[in-house]
Amino acid sequence: MLDLSSTNGGYNTFHGAIAGFKIIEGFGCEPAIQLGYTVGQVKAPRTAVSDITAFLTYAQIAGLALSLGIATTVFLNGATHDISMILPNLPRDFIEASINGARTTILDDLSPSLRLRLVESIASTAGKVFYLNVA
């Protein structure tokens, strides 16, 4: 069994490693995602098969939307906290705008070492969100 707890998803993680983790995750998720349809359609009476399929499809889409919302919240809160610890004098609104993709000068005005710390903290937060998906 592969132990993903000993891996570090972050700034120095190779793209190939991330792709490999996603492939392993897909092998584990795909059978579990489709299993409900098979069991529901086999166990339900023929007249209820379309209702079972519709409900399971709705539940999967709702679950995806919910997990996306949770992952976004975890990422934004974690990255905002980490950046505010590295750059305590920046206003919170400016930090949040920078994370959300607004064209700010947050990285342009920093020294290379401080910029690296900032990018590493954001990558580390993204790695934590990745593991949230695996869990």
From TrEMBL:
It comes from the Eukaryota. This is Uncharacterized protein.
